[in-house]
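Rather than argue in generalities, we have chosen a single entry, letters for residues, whole numbers for local backbone shapes, without further comment.
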Amino acid sequence: MRYLVTGSAGFIGSHLVEALRADGHEVVGLDCFTDYYDVALKEENARGQKILRLDLARDALDFAGYDGVFHLAGQPGVRSFGDVFETYLERNVLASQRLFEAAARDGVRVVFASSSSVYGDAEAYPTAETVRPQPVSPYGITKLTCEHLARATAKSFGLDVVVARYFNAYGPRQRPDMAFTRIAMCLAEGRPFDLFGDGLQSRSFTYVADVVRGTMLAMESGSGTYNVGGGEEATMRDTIAIFEDLAGHPLEIRDHPSVPGDQRRTKADTTLIRDELGWAPTTSLRDGLSSQWQWAAARVAAR
């Protein structure tokens, strides 16, 4: 099969490209290398990829000849209030609208990477796909908007699309602004860690290899919307304790108020994806954090 992966220079996208190639597929990446974080890190992720350097919101799109598009590109992060919101509209909403319409035109199947942020402060935990979305950040609002655009394009233009709602992906190559990367780097470098909120926020953390496997299964035989979430729920304090144990020394913590738009809790109900696609997370939180710690420590040691 021949696949296109948007956001292929990013954290999850680069892992997805590797997994697809390992399965024998032909893979083309697409990324516009925005400066949300150090572009050099994205260049490193994309090394060895056959990659198109395009802006989905502005450049001409041609998906003829592909068997499927994995749409992972977008502007991430819940700190999306204020002047930056225009960027979220362009890189999430406009970019996705153009991609969906081009894919429908070219008859190409799409897996769209959405987010647990669409649930906001959910009405029920674990949270099933049928729970009413009520995002509490502009980022979550744009991801939910993209889901609505996907369904509208499917209804009006026949787009073949599956939505995968990712729950707090982590692992090697995680973005530098994400908590686990910051914790690991602070421990490796002996720096204090800035903790936002009381540390009791809990998440359905999902190891990146599990996310990738769920995404590939969605392309193969999925339909509708699926939660792709970890089997273990943990608080930030829990994960810090595991990292400290892996590092063999404590982490100095500097406390700060919580960030506007940050959810208090996420916990995925994965009954649907398990029943329909046979997917379940297989990586324990400790094993996943160990992989991320080893990756971070090796990067610091290699400087």
Summary: The first helix runs from residue 11 to 22. The first strand starts at residue 2 and ends at 6.
